[in-house]
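Figure 2 data, in text form.
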Amino acid sequence: MHRIIKIVLIVLGVLSTILWYLLPASDMPPSQAIDSTSMDLMFKVVFLLLFVATAASVFFGLKKTFTSEGGVKRVLKTLGFAIVLTLIGYLIAGGEEAVVEAVQTERGLTTTVGTVKTIGTLLNIFFGMVIIAIVLMVIPSLKRLTGR
């Protein structure tokens, strides 16, 4: 199996290298560059690799989840924490009409209160995950420093 994977990766590497040299020149107008066959094929190779990586991650993740002891319980806990974090992010997010008007006047973009609320929710989730990651890095470090 490893040999097959190595051969496929070598073939994709050589194909990608050939496509790289066939990409349009930088002085070509974007409208013509987008219609380039080599660029289209390069995107297809990238999407193929992304699909394979995603499928492998999902497959091996699910395999480990169901074969390890307590794996399903850990996944359900993580999913529960993610749902709680999403709810908190949604409740904190602002979706006021004043923000929508400010975006329309300052940026000239047409938007809705729901879009502003969704963006706020996603930002709050991201910042919450950053805070959780920082705390999970700092606490063990402090425990090691203090020797407890």
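Caption note: Helices lie at 2-22, 30-34, 37-67, 71-92, 97-106, 113-146.
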